Amino acid sequence: MRPKISDSAHASNSRLPHEPSLIQAEVRPSESGPSGAGGAAVDTILEGATHILKKLGFEGYTTNAIADRAGVSIGSLYQYFPNKDAVTLTLIERESAVLVREIEATRCLILATVESLLELSR
């Protein structure tokens, strides 16, 4: 199943169809699932996906390989993610969030250092 591309992508050649801003919400992880177990299952699936990408690359990165590595059935994987693109998008979002937090922490340290230096120069 391919992600749906918005009409604006077809109307203009200024953006490529695979750009994240054009991927609609249908590739987002499903919120459904057993209460309490959903978060752990999603984490397990994402850990499996990360392992497959690191060890096998994109050639081996399939939903079947992800499910097998995560120790879940393919049906369970599809309960939380409608397709491989949704798994990939979630991995990217999680890693991006970590990077943003690290950048923000570094920015705060730099600002504190600059303020200290300015204070010393007065």
UniProtKB/TrEMBL annotation:
Keyword Nucleus: no
Keyword terms, alphabetized: DNA-binding
Entry keyword annotation includes Kinase: no
Superkingdom, natural source: Bacteria
Family annotation (PROSITE patterns): HTH_TETR_1, HTH_TETR_2
InterPro entries: DNA-bd_HTH_TetR-type_CS, Homeodomain-like_sf, HTH-type_TetR-like_transc_reg, HTH_TetR
GO terms, molecular function: DNA-binding transcription factor activity; transcription cis-regulatory region binding
Domain HTH tetR-type residue range list: 39-99
Residue ranges the UniProt entry marks as DNA-binding: 62-81
Ranges annotated as spanning the membrane: none
UniProt-annotated stretches for the region Disordered: 1-40
Pfam families: TetR_N (PF00440)
Coiled coil: none
UniProt name for this protein: TetR/AcrR family transcriptional regulator
